[in-house]
Design brief:
Blueprint (H helix, E strand, L loop, with lengths): L3 E6 L4 H13 L2 E11 L4 E2 L6 H11 L3 E6 L4 H17 L4 E3 L6 H13 L3 E3 L7 H10 L3 E8 L14 H6 L13 E7 L9 E10 L18 E9 L2
Parallel strand pairs: 1-2, 1-5, 2-4, 5-6
Antiparallel strand pairs: 2-3, 7-8, 7-10, 9-10
Length: about 240
């Protein structure tokens, strides 16, 4: 069977890593590129705050080329323009499918599908409607290792930032927080996984707090607002 060429929307976190592993195991799609959105001013992954070099290290370990959409204004219009330029180039290479690691946010799925439809491209959601508690347990059981890099203070406090996502982490989460952080409660960085040829060696740097500067509804990928005042970030450093 000929595999279907596709781009994988890559955040470097838990859900993204798990979804990519599932896609590679199933063998239906030929992942030509990973695609990440980078804040060009700070050279960090948008929203997650992870350094660009860490995303590059993941791509190198996976063995799939990385495409980057650089944004500077953090506006939805700029994000859509940059994504469109890259995806149109991919379409010229006969790539018509884009794979996302979303789980249950209907508005986010609709947003993605509408934008891809304007480019005559199709969305794929390999872990859609997967039970998040089951998924995070399976994620841990399969040997994935990840650390929280961004915490939404509308849900969790500073102490959750920079924590390893393991059984203790999952069991201690408040009942109001989704096990996979699908509502934007937390973001993570995966440093060891079955999809990696080698482990990404990292060290934890300082924690910083950033007050909310834009409405969450205006963010390039809409996020649920639970009284968020800002975000805690743990700076992760690549170790050679």
């Amino acid at each position: 069977m000929n595999k279907i060429p596709a781009i994988f929307s890559w955040s470097g976190g838990k859900d993204s890593s798990y979804a990519l592993h599932k896609v590679l195991q199933e063998g239906v799609y030929d992942i030509k590129y990973l695609l990440s959105t980078i804040n060009g001013n700070y050279k960090r992954l948008s929203m997650h705050g992870v350094r660009e070099e860490l995303i590059e290290a993941q791509a190198n370990s996976i063995g799939i080329p990385l495409l980057k959409a650089y944004v500077y204004e953090a506006s939805n219009a700029e994000y859509e323009k940059q994504m469109q330029e890259i995806l149109l180039q991919a379409r010229d290479e006969n790539i018509n499918h884009v794979i996302f690691g979303d789980i249950f946010l209907e508005d986010l799925r609709q947003y993605r599908e509408q934008k891809m439809a304007t480019l005559d491209m199709q969305c794929v959601f390999p872990i859609w409607k997967t039970d998040t508690k089951w998924m995070v347990d399976d994620f841990i059981a399969k040997g994935f290792k990840t650390i929280t890099c961004c915490i939404n203070d509308g849900y969790l406090n500073e102490s959750w930032c920079g924590r390893l996502i393991d059984e203790t982490f999952v069991n201690e989460l408040p009942t109001t927080v989704d096990a996979c952080g699908e509502n934007g409660e937390f973001h993570s960085f995966c440093f060891e996984a079955p999809i990696f040829k080698t482990k990404i060696i990292i060290a934890k740097g300082e924690k910083t707090y950033k007050a909310l500067e834009i409405k969450l509804s205006d963010h390039p990928t809409p996020i649920k607002d639970a009284g968020t005042k800002g975000f805690w970030f743990c700076d992760l450093l690549l170790q050679s």
